[in-house]
Design brief:
Helices cover 45% and strands 24% of the residues. The chain is built from 8 helices and 7 strands.
Length: 190
């Protein structure tokens, strides 16, 4: 049994583990891939904007899933480039640092209309049980309360199930590039 909770520091290692488990298989054994994955899609959010992060906590108080968000691209970019690209390079080498720097480029094109962006991951055992919907509902309500005007995400073009899920929340495809789709939603349309 899991429960939806606001992120707290006690979840840090299990959130990082969930990121690795749900990421590319190479992240489990390859320090370059692991450094890139954690720097690009996890650590900034839980360290710099924990108030915009929510977890699925199991009975052992471990995160089995999460939704994490940066609410303002300009502020995110300042810290991310300064701290997390360097961390990836230090932990995984030049290539990890380069991949981490490049990971945010697509977000820059849409930052004016969609200043916030998210990442969502759920461990396989808890997928297809409605937890993604609950996480998304919680984050969208949270961002609307904060008057954030738009939210974007990047998803693999072949991930039809995820694209369909996001469309149910009003996300629209704004761009296709290199096998990925950028999807945005205006949070002021309500």
């Amino acid at each position: 049994m899991v429960e939806l909770k606001p992120y707290e520091e006690c979840y840090k290692e299990s959130v990082r583990e969930t990121c690795i488990i749900t990421g590319p298989a190479a992240a489990r054994d390859n320090k370059t891939v692991r450094a890139w994955l954690l720097a690009s899609f996890c650590d900034y959010y839980i360290e710099q904007e924990p108030e915009n992060c929510f977890v699925l906590a199991d009975r052992n108080n471990e995160a089995m899933g999460y939704i994490i968000c940066a609410e303002n691209y300009k502020e995110f970019k300042k810290v991310y480039l300064k701290k997390y690209v360097k961390a990836a390079r230090r932990q995984g080498g030049f290539y990890a640092g380069l991949r981490t720097a490049v990971a945010i480029i697509p977000l820059a094109f849409y930052a004016k209309k969609y200043p916030a962006h998210l990442h969502i991951d759920i461990r396989p055992y808890y997928q297809r049980q409605g937890w993604g919907r609950k996480l998304m509902d919680r984050l969208l309500d949270h961002l609307r309360q904060k008057k954030v005007k738009g939210l974007i995400l990047i998803v693999g073009k072949s991930n039809k199930q995820a694209i369909s899920f996001y469309k149910k929340y009003g996300f629209k495809e704004v761009s296709n590039f290199f096998g990925f789709v950028a999807m945005g939603v205006d949070l002021n349309d309500d």
